[in-house]
Structures are given as C-alpha cells and as structure tokens.
Amino acid sequence: MMTVITLAVAVAHGQALAQHEQKSGKEVVETTCISCHGSGLNGAPKIGDAKAWQKRAEQGLTSLTQNALNGIRRMPAHGGNPGLSDLEIERAVTYMVNQSGGHWIEPIDRASPPPARSAEQVVHSQCAKCHQAGAGGAPKIGDRSAWIPRLKQGVDSLVLSVINGHGGMPPRGGAADLTDAELRSAVVYMYNPAAVAAPKGSPARVVASNDVAVVGTTTVYLGVVSADVIRAHPGEYPKLAAAAPSGPAQYYVTIALFDSGNGKRIDDAMVKARVSTATQGGAEQTLEPVTIASSRTYGNYFAMGGAGPYRITVDIRRPGDPNPLQAQFEYTH
Is 5 exposed, middle or buried (0-12, 13-18, 19+ CB in 10 A)? Predict the structure, then answer.
C-alpha cells in the first residue's frame, strides 16, 4: 500500500512540476545554455551572433529543438541537463534566436495552461516589476502620454511586440506561461488601469477615465465626434452625416467592441448608452450598428452642451452570455 501511495504522490508531484514550474527560455539559457553559447565554446553559435543563428533559424524551431534534445556534435542531449522538459528546450532555443536578431514567439504550455488570470493580476504580479517605476524606459502604468505613441499601430501590434520581446523586455514580459489573451488584457490595463472587479452576481462593470476599458472578456473602445465635424466632412462619414441632427451641441458617441481572448471584433452585440452629468441624468438610447470601411461599430447622437464632465454609461449584451456588461467613461470636451 505504501508503494502505491508513494507512487501516486510522486506522479502528482511530477504533474505539478510540469504544470507550474516550467522555466522561461531566459531562465534556461542563463542556468544551462550560457556555459557554451555565451562565449561560443566548442563551436556553439554565440548568443548575439546574428549571422551564426540565422542559418540555424532557417531550420525552424522543431528541427533546432530536436537537435538540442538528441544532442548534436559536441553538445550533449538536453544541453547537458536531462531535467529540462521539451518545452523548456523549445523556449531556450527561441530565446537565443531572438537575442540574435530573430522574432520568434516563445511557446507556452498549451497542454496544461494555468487558470486564466485577470489583467490586474498579471500586471501586479509581473508587469509592475518594470512598468510601475518605468525601469529601463518602460512606459509607466497609467501614463497615457507614454502609451499612446506605442499604441499608434493598434493594440494587436503592441501585444505582438510583447509576445516576441522588445528592447530590454524579454518575450512574454519574462513570464513564459502568460497567454496571448492575458498579455493583451495587461497592455490595455496598463494604458488605462481603471478596471474594477464586479461583485459576484452583479453586472460586470468597469469605470474608465479615458477611452478604452476591459470588461470581463470584452474590450470596449469609446469615440466621441461632434455633429459639426461630421457634417463638415461628409466624405469621411457618409452614413453618419446623413443622420446628423441639426440641433446645437450634438455629438456622435461610438463604441467598438473586441473579444479580449481572440482579439476579434464583436459585431453581434446589443449596445445601449446614457450620457449624464453630475446634476442631470440622460435618456438611454440604443447604439445602432454601423459598418464603416468594413468595420462594425455601434453609435448614436447625444446632446452634450457645455464642456462636461460627462459620464457615458454603456450597457452591452453579447449573444449567449446571460451576464450584462457595463462600462462607464468620464468624458470632457
């Protein structure tokens, strides 16, 4: 009986190690591979030698990993460390390629991924190590002026640079088990760290001070354009210009929705909004779906006289999701 129990404990412990203690490529390289690849010992391609690694990178990750697992020329199997898993070897190879001019994506453990973590958890447990104080030039959390230039090519482009590693930041921000969706949420959170966890059973909700928010698994983008601007540029807003009201201080409030998990645009939601001030509540209106340049957004016109501030409350219902989502934005002309 003791043998069976001992074996069961050993198996469970091994599974726990496989699921929770997989090293990043940087960690593997610094503890194992660096002994030869740091100086080019015994003909090993030196880390940083782009020419030497380019030839090897052309073979692809699968081929290079197999060489490392089996051993090749004077390199022993598993790089001389039999305790390394296949995934850790893959990550080490990817890290060395990327440190030598490559742009590979460090693999994650898709066989046994960890439970999904919130953007706030990811940021405070990992990203804050550099982004809290701006170490090494990293844009600080919530410093919108620093994040906007980095977001000029879009969130997806910035997330890709996080996945690959950029400048002094290693792939996946130094945490190889972070999924693409978690990294995307973390980037949006650092741009606008206003996410607030809703009490269980209540509508998922976030209050945002800028123009982007993450609510549950949905990323919400806000845009506000005056009717005067739309009427003055009918070529840019053909569908909106025709419906622009003639009254004073009319503004078109538009919402774009994306699935935070796969990054795809959400075009089948039901969206309503209310614009209010500290002293006056506004009527709720449905934001009608509109397609501009093949992209679906939701919008409608609201009277917004004066500079504000205004609170724009957006209620969202996605098909198949019984839980309503709510985002609130603070807006000033």
Answer: exposed
**pLDDT digit string (tens) for 158-191?**
888 888 888 788 888 888 778 888 888 888 888 8
**CATH code of the domain in which 134 resides:** 1.10.760.10
Distance between CA atoms of 248 and 326, rounded to whole angstroms?
29
Residue 176 located in a structural domain = yes
pLDDT in tens, 234-281: 887 778 888 888 877 899 999 988 887 677 889 999 999 999 987 888
Locate 194 and state its tokens. Answer: 């206003």
Q: Say if residue 130 is in the same domain as residue 159.
A: yes
Task: Provide the domain count of the chain.
Answer: 3
Indicate if 185 and 213 belong to the same structural domain.
no
* Residue 312 backbone phi and psi in degrees, to 5: -105, 110
Give the range of the structural domain holding residue 322, as residue numbers without chain letter.
204-331
